Amino acid sequence: MEKVQSFRDALKDTATLSGWTLGNSELESEFIEKIVGDVSNKLQAMSSSHTTALFGIDVRVNKVESLLNMESPDVLIVGIRGMGGIGKTTIAQALCNKVRSRFEGIFFANFRKELETGSMADLQRRFLSQLLGQEIMSMGFLSFRDSFVRERLRRKKVFIVLDDVDDLMPLEEWKDLLDGQHSSFGSGSKVLITSRDKQVLKNVVDKT
After folding, report:
1. Structural domains of the chain sorted by starting position, each given as residue range(s) with its CATH number in brackets
2. pLDDT in 10s for each residue of the chain, 208 residues
3. Residues forming a β-bridge with 162
4. Dihedral of CA 185/191/193/199: which sign?
5. Which helix (H) or strand (E) holds 163?
6. Tell me, what DSSP letter sits at residue 207?
7. Strand order in 76-81's β-sheet?
8. 155: nearest Cα among 99, 96, 75
9. CB 153 within 8 A of CB 184
10. Which of 137, 149, 159, 129 is nearest to 41 (CA)?
């Protein structure tokens, strides 16, 4: 009887879970890809623990998570500032792993290093391919100012990390996305910027 009751309890719990709905205008193959992607993200989040061997990391990760107000539908930009080697990137990576399953798209870039080895165009291309899908690259070069790009980004809840930003000039290319009204991304999107220079974060982030 205990086993029967456990089955009944499991079925009751299952009945309360929300599922996926296939729309009339959506292809089954695309629908299945969404489910696979969602499950993959959840599995990756489960296997990538945000806790590391570093003492006190959880406290700092939770602090930044609190500043980003994850449950809020607001689009927020938070900055982490400190000297080199203090752990800004480690905190950002740990938080990214922790919240990965809550977002439709994740983008993480070591800003300074990527611009040393590549170009701003390369970084923008990777940004768009990761958040909007590889198929967008077949349309040729698209900039952040293109209406097609802006419209698609506004429909996505994304988590973006711009790590180790050491110069204001590269951010000029991104200023349309990081505007004061935060209207470039879908509801609940969050942006995290790390830097050694407080001037880089000034007038860009909501909280530091």
Report:
1. 28-201 (3.40.50)
2. 889 999 998 898 888 887 788 878 778 888 888 888 778 766 665 554 445 567 778 889 999 999 999 889 988 999 999 998 888 999 999 998 888 888 888 888 888 888 888 788 888 888 888 888 765 656 666 677 777 788 888 888 999 999 998 877 777 767 767 765 567 888 899 999 999 988 888 888 889 9
3. 109, 193
4. positive
5. strand 158-163
6. B
7. 76-81, 190-195, 158-163, 105-110
8. 75
9. yes
10. 159
- What is the rounded CA–CA span in Å between residue 170 and residue 120? 8
Q: How many CA atoms lie within 13 A of 81 on its CB side?
A: 13
Q: Which residue has the tokens 């480690």?
A: 90
C-alpha span between 151 and 156 (Å, rounded): 9
Partners of residue 191 on adjacent β-strands:
77, 160
Distance in angstroms (rounded) separating the CA atoms of residues 118 and 144? 18
Q: What type of residue is 178? A: L
If one counts every other C-beta atom within 10 angstroms of the C-beta of residue 183, the result is 11
Residue type, 52: T
> Which residue, chain included where needed, has tokens 């007038």?
203
Helix axes 88-99, 57-68, angle to 10 degrees: 70
Q: Determine the Cα–Cα distance for residues 82 and 38; give it in Å rounded to an integer.
A: 34
Task: Calculate the CA 178 to chain-centre distance.
Answer: 14
Q: Look up the pTM and report it.
A: 0.70
Q: Name the token pair of 137.
A: 């690259």
Nearest to 45 by CA among 95, 81, 1, 99: 99
